[in-house]
Amino acid sequence: MVGDNDLTYLDNAATTHKPFEVINALTNYYSNLNSNIHRAVYQLAEEATIAYEQTREQIAKFINAKTVEEIIFTRNTTESINLVAYSWARNNLKKNDIVLISELEHHSNIVPWQILSQEKRCVVDYVKLDDSGYLNLSNLVDKIESGNVKLISLSHMSNVLGTIIPIKKIIKMAHANEIPVLVDGAQSVPHMPVDVQDIDCDFLAFSAHKMLGPTGVGVLYVKKEILENMPPFMGGGDMIKEVFKSVTRYNDLPYKFEAGTQNIAGVIAFGAALNYLSKIGMQNVRDHEVFLTKYAIKLMTAFREITLYGPKDPKERGGVIAFNIADIHPHDLATIMNDRGIAIRSGHHCAQVLMQRLDVSATSRASFYIYNTREDIDKLVEALNDARRIFKI
Amino acid sequence: MSDDIYREIILDHYRNPRNKGKLDMSDVSVHDSNPLCGDEIDIHMKVSGGKIENIKFEGRGCAISQASASMLTEMVIGKELEIIKELKKEDILENIGLTNLGPARIKCALLSLKVLKVGMVKYYLERDPDSAQKMKEESMPY
Hints:
The structure holds two protein chains of two kinds. Helix content of chain A is 40%, strand content 16%. Chain A is α/β, with parallel strands linked by helices. Chain A folds into two domains: 8-18 and 282-390, Aspartate Aminotransferase, domain 1, CATH 3.90.1150.10; 20-279, Aspartate Aminotransferase, domain 2. A seven-stranded mixed beta sheet of chain A has the order 2-8-7-6-5-3-4, with helices on both faces. A four-stranded antiparallel beta sheet of chain A has the order 11-12-15-14, with helices on one face. In chain A, β9 (240-243) and β10 form a beta hairpin. The radius of gyration of chain A is 22 Å and the shape is globular. The relative contact order of chain A is 0.16. By secondary structure, chain B is of the alpha+beta class. Chain B has one domain (2-139): Sufe protein. Chain: A (Alpha-Beta Complex). In chain B, 52% of the residues lie in helices and 18% in strands. Chain B has a three-stranded antiparallel beta sheet, with helices on one face. In chain B, a hairpin with a 6-residue loop joins β1 (28-33) and β2. Chain B is globular, with a radius of gyration of 15 Å. In chain B, 40% of the residues are buried.
């Protein structure tokens, strides 16, 4: 509820709501399984360890990883990308090497590379976007062929425009030039089938809380042959085999990358979220969002004063719609929406480089998930009409 | 309710801002933004004999932030520079007729006051650093 109105939640690109199964899994851990994992030999700790490791197995299956050792738990997508920057990239990049990203990246796939570039004196370069919100592939090819690109890191699905990039094709081109690819799957993994062996990515980062799971749990997938040569990101408990005064032998994969007590409850509850999604089927999730996006675009383009950003074809974008209407600032629109119980996002969506490319300071954004319906979009459109009336447009 | 927020006077100042633009030969210019929502305000002032002889603002952002800035320039133009230190957030909210904004939107309404206060302190800092510190203490918090 928002005041006297039922909540219409259209900010799923930011975070999703949690099914009771997930909330119950959190409660169940703290009520019945509370203990630390991987160490103690008593039964309680063993049960907690089994439940924790079961989620790892579920994730491996969910994204079709070859082995569970390729799955590392982090706090979120941002930490997963930082882990690659601080561990793999710090050890493999040198002066003038290029980290290639694009103009549609979230700040979490820009800032870690900028920080690294200051230390290693490498360069962060951007693939251009065309005016319809697609990556300019010929620009990408030119940059790949320039010879200095040592890592490509791209958002699979834009959190603003919804653009789904042709990741499989891009990875094939990159590998032909021996360039590894990190896929920021924060928006794609929750909303469509993603198969790491099929697309052949080297790294994949995503967050549990954007896919029905709790906050504070993220995933980094790394191909085993790469992971074996990566130094640890953080030192501490649980990531070691033996510690002496001057040296330490690190633990096996993937524990080498999970220092300190992890978010055990969160990981276990993420398992419940994966179960929930698997029962629905990710292709069904995707189809439902294509249906909603198509419906929303159809209704919204009826407003003469509206600007919709991103690809027009619902099959080439995710269920996230960024827009502006006449001279109503997104924050004013969000206030009007809030009075009607509708939660939409307004602002730069942690993508200021993209905002500069679009030449706007902010946009409104509605984003969908499995529980949204056509009626939610009808309410959005009705509120847009109210906003026009209030702003005398 | 938002229907009450976006009254005629707010929309009028949003769409037809008063004192908007740059100032040739301003005595002090200050910029600030609201990182959360990206509202931006620049204020330029020409001070003469301790009075705000002229004031202009530039900016982009929501109706509340821009209308508030427009109304604030009207409120202080021709007044003593020192009165800026006396201005409180309640004065601004009453001036724009929005006394029950939530915590997120109140920042939009008060951005221009913040810029104006920093501008006043900067003016004294460049001319009379000792009194600037006193001005700063007296004008905060607001």
